[in-house]
Design a protein that fits this description.
alpha/beta, 2 domains, 17% strand
């Protein structure tokens, strides 16, 4: 591919250091330099190619920028990501694009030309007919990933994460299609709630992070049902310190390549990897009780996540334990939404007996109390979220 093939091409360069390519691989192109914010809503009608300098941006902002491309209603142009540091959350989101490639620094002008050639050849039949294009790496299938976060302690986030995972299992024909990952490493309760014994040893995960693959991941998995696997660690107050960011992100990357659905039970308090994980999720559910302190906490948490991701992604708030009275008059749904200053995605009814029976017997509420209002409400919630996921993926 000669530089003449880029003559008149519109190239969006995200990162100041890329300006130097204008005298080399991008000679003749119409170069527009911009920040990550330019990626929001950009379409193939606005640019023929996007080049992003991964080293120019902090990891959470970079992951959010790539995520903005994946959720764009119109297909974005081909994307070339270059740099010496390529976070797994970024690469995972990049894999969702139809045409993308990664070039690790240090790279030569010839390598940039070859990468651009491959991307443009894959994008247009005209270029593909003119010359055989180098093989473009094909991404593995990537799971749909939902994160569940409690606005306050005891809001029922783990219970709802389990019920959501169980609902998704009922929609899958193949075995081992859903994975529930308890990222509350120090004191997570997903294992005990399911009557399962967690087998994820954080120290072992940290030691194996650089060589972790799908087969090795199964050594850390606890099978719950034919469709559902659990990734959870035994109680350990030092677990967060023992699990480096790279190990957590690598585990999630492999899990998302191995399952159709991944549900994350997230810790309330932010960790070094929290924003990257959330930036790679398709949905973020903030779980709140119908009390004023919980509602205010849910609003603050949602605002913080939305602000710090900076990608336009918005958490969805789910109101848990809806009832006519909870130790006195409870706020109505409308009153709750006024406190939240936003619409709630849905509500889940209060059924203490069903929840307690499920926890004591071990397993989802749907198994022990299938007629509980909780089961019906979660089913309706999953219906809406799954329909949105399918629509987003199709777009």
């Amino acid at each position: 591919m000669s530089t003449q093939s880029l003559s008149g091409r519109r190239v969006l360069a995200i990162g100041p250091a890329l300006a130097g390519l204008a005298d080399g691989p991008l000679a003749g192109a119409q170069l527009e330099q911009a920040t990550l914010a330019r990626l929001i809503g950009v379409t193939a009608a606005e640019a023929d190619l996007i080049i992003i300098d991964a080293d120019a941006w902090a990891d959470p902002a970079l992951a959010a920028g790539i995520q903005a491309l994946t959720i764009s209603p119109s297909p974005p142009p081909p994307v070339l990501l270059v740099g010496s540091h390529l976070p797994t959350a970024v690469v995972r989101n990049l894999f969702r694009l139809d045409h993308s490639d990664v070039l690790e620094a240090p790279y030569t002008p010839e390598a940039v030309v070859a990468a651009i050639e491959g991307l443009l050849a894959a994008q247009t039949a005209k270029t593909a007919a003119a010359a055989p294009a180098p093989a473009v790496p094909q991404a593995a299938a990537v799971a749909r990933c939902w994160a569940v976060i409690g606005a306050v302690g005891g809001s029922g986030a783990t219970t709802l994460a389990i019920e959501i995972a169980n609902q998704l299992c009922g929609r899958q024909a193949k075995e081992k299609s859903v994975c529930l990952i308890d990222l509350c490493l120090a004191d997570g309760s997903a294992g005990p709630y399911l009557g399962a014994s967690p087998t994820l040893r954080v120290a072992d995960l940290a030691a194996a992070a650089d060589k972790l693959d799908a087969a090795m991941l199964q050594a850390f998995v606890t099978p719950v049902t034919k469709q559902l696997d659990l990734l959870a660690a035994p109680r350990d107050p030092q677990a967060f310190e023992a699990a480096p960011r790279e190990a957590i992100l690598r585990m999630l990357e492999i899990a998302c390549e191995s399952y159709d659905w991944v549900i994350l039970d997230m810790p309330r308090h932010r960790r070094s990897w929290s924003l990257e994980v959330l930036g790679g999720c398709d949905e973020m559910l903030v779980i709140s009780e119908l009390t004023v302190p919980a509602l205010l906490a849910a609003r603050s948490l949602s605002d913080e996540i939305e602000r710090d991701l900076g990608s336009g992604q918005k958490p969805k708030i789910v109101l848990n334990r809806l009832a006519s009275r909870m130790f006195g008059p409870a706020p109505s749904m409308a009153e709750a939404e006024r406190a939240l200053q936003r619409k709630a995605e849905g509500g889940v009814s209060s059924d203490w007996e069903a929840a307690a029976a499920s926890v004591n017997l071990g397993g989802p509420i749907a198994t022990h109390r299938p007629k509980s209002k909780i089961v019906k409400d979660v089913q309706q919630l999953v219906d809406r979220l799954a329909a949105h996921s399918v629509a987003t993926k199709a777009a």
